Structures are given as C-alpha cells and as structure tokens.
Target: NYN domain-containing protein
Amino acid sequence: MKRKNNAIYIDLENIPGNLDLKSLFDELTLKHNADENEENIFVIKMACGNAASIKKIESKLAEYNFSIRDTPAITTTYKNRADLIISLDALETIIINNPAIERYIFITSDSDFSVIMETLRKYGKEVYLVTKESVSNKPIFNNCCDEILIIEEYLPKSKVEETKATVSKSAESPNTTSPEKNDKFVEELILKVLEAMDPDSWHLVSYVGIKFHQMDKSRIIERSKYKTLSTLLTKLEKDKVIERKLNDKGHPQIKMLSI
Model:
C-alpha cells in the first residue's frame, strides 16, 4: 500500500461550528486517489482561530488530534493572523520536506489563502479547498486548487436541510446558485469543453471528463439535475449534439455532430 501524506488546515473563524469532521475525513480517506493502492495519511492537522471559534469545535478537533492555535486579534481594527500562521506552516513543510506532503487541504472561505494555495501548486503539490457553496465558483478559488469540496455537504443533515429551506425563501442570497442555474451552467460548460476539441476526431469520454472537471472544480454537476457527466452526455446524444461509440479496446468515445 502506497502512502499519500496529507496536511489539513482549518480556518476556524470561516467555517460553521457544526462541521462534521468524521464525514469529511471519511470522504478524504476513501476517495480522490488516482491509484486504488494509495492510502491517505493525515500527517499534519492544524486548526487556527480565536477563542470563541475554537470553543465551538474544540472537542471534535481533539478527537482527531489537531494542533490548535489560538489567534486573537492583535488590534481592535484588524483581523487575527490565522491565515498568515497557517500559510507559513504550510510553506515551512516544503522547506523541511520531512515528511514530504503531497496533498494540502484548506478548510476556509477566506480568499487570502489563495496565495499559499497557488504557491504550493507551483511546487507541484496537490491542493484541495473545502469551502461554502456560495463562494465555491469564484475564479480566485478555481484557479488555485485542484479540487473544491462543498462544506455544506459535511454538516449534519438536519442543518443542511434547514439551511437550504432558508435560502429558498430568501431573495437576498445573490451568491447562492439555484438548481436551474446549475443545470444551465453544466450544459454550457460541456459545450465549451467539446467545442475546444477537434470536431473531426473521436475523443475518449475519460479525457472529456478530465477536461470538464478542470472547469468544474466545485463539482456543480453533482448539484444539478444531471448528477453525473454520463447523464449529461446522454442528453447531448439524445439532442443529437454528440454521437457515441466504443473504440476497438471497448472504451467509450464521443464526437461532436455538425449543428
């Protein structure tokens, strides 16, 4: 079994206090590996925030052996230094390189972390972001990480349903994406991906999936009516936008049809 060393950092003041760490760790442990023989090991676990934000989730952090840093505000007008402390710790791991970290996971909605995330990718590191759905599609986040997970997926179910009900009744949530907008977004996105490819050639569905995911890092398709790329491609085939076939190795391929 091959080890894959992970470092996970939590910006406590930018996450909900009822975050379900178990479901998040289960997701990160069991999924997202290119090689099925890889085992995700969390060798660094750090959480930073002020005393109030620590108290909300302290017992959960203790269960997972997180290092907890109290970061009180240094003045009455400026925020604390949690982002700086976390960023420097992550950067230090590259300098020390023992153990060598392959994947960094940041749990925050603060765009200040995009600086360290971009730096880590420059050094060939894999970077994940766990953030609120309302900011998950921001270009600044999509351009500095490899994968975006939605934090609402890791809240207690009753709280998620309550949040969604509140949002649906509110007309003052411009950053929240409706299911209908999600449908339109992924429909337009898959067309952009296909139109960027050679129209006279057949393309492996797996390759199309990679390109699509590079454009949809927050996995909006999972929150659309399609749920999966396969279902979306089936609609395009039915609408005669694409045609599909298996190649001589039995791998599915698609090709754009002339419109």
